[in-house]
Amino acid sequence: MSANDRPSGPQPKTHDSAFLKACRREPVPHTPVWFMRQAGRSLPEYLKVREGIPMLESCMRPELVKEITLQPVRRHGVDAAIFFSDIVVPLKAIGVDLDIKPGVGPVVAQPIRSRADLDRLRELTPDDVRYVTEAIGLLTDELGATPLIGFAGAPFTLASYLVEGGPSRNHEHTKALMYGDPELWADLLDRLAEITSAFLKVQIEAGASAVQLFDSWVGALAPADYRRSVMPASTKVFDSVAGYGVPRIHFGVGTGELLGLLGEAGADVVGVDWRVPLDEAARRVGPGKALQGNLDPAVLFAPTAAVEEKTREVLTAAEGLEGHVFNLGHGVLPTMNPDALTRLVDFVHTQTSGGPTPA
Questions:
Q1: DSSP annotation of 293
Q2: Is residue 343 annotated as part of the catalytic site, yes or no?
Q3: 130 assigned to active site
Q4: Mean pLDDT in residue range 82-95
Q5: How far apart are CA 24 and CA 17, in angstroms?
Q6: Is 226 annotated in the active site?
Q7: In this predicted structure, what is the pLDDT of residue 357?
Q8: Which of 3, 20, 123, 149 qualifies as a cystine partner to 82, CB 3.0-4.6 A?
């Protein structure tokens, strides 16, 4: 089932939003805009409410999650909210000893390197993340017709953190396990696919209108390795939530050589970073998919005229797409001026309102 085949019944308030229409490859009143990491470090109001609260704890406070998720919607007028959380939250919820170290990222106390270590990865139940269900309920009440995007980390990226013990430049332990013990690797990714699927189901059932699977580190792989060693687990995740009929977005960094495979894994919308123009990305992905992206985040540090010029380039490359959601090619950078993001949303809306709609 794709995003265009939502189960019958009363349509939610968000159904006719520009964001969901673009995901379904339907005509839109304007190109919808949202930003990865729009809720967070670049906003002074975020820094104020998070002051003194560790990252993982902040993800477990429903009222705080609601406030942080709503902040960029209020400030920037984006077309969708993305649930404030972290990709390691489901791992923490099932008892993995990890923490998010400021300036470093997720750090795992005991990396997974053997078959015995798999026993530490039990299944995730809704009771493990009741705070997620509560927070999404609070959010959907306030968001009204604005869609909420749920998300999770893809099995490969979660495995990379678990095997390396934290962020890694070369993923040497991860690749050594993938190449050296393919049976254990497959079992690890399958277990993570089950955990990720359960986490996405909780978010959808609580009211999320779409979900995005972040495979942040998968660009480190060659296409053949992705197809053989990673794609089955990602496909399992997408298949697990297909019956809900909500759009499924897939995004990874440095994945120009994998774009077709990211769509083939089961996504309705393929996220594109800034390295590949959207018209070329469409050729690589093939028909039947919407695209999301793909302004270089660093462009936002340039003068407004330069930002507008580069944005026009993205919109021009997107003119022939079946569906387009405007986003950055990666997340909002922490030192970015929030006003630049607000101006960007307005510029995209103005440039695309009343113009040609997707084919």
A1: E
A2: no
A3: no
A4: 97
A5: 11
A6: no
A7: 40
A8: 149
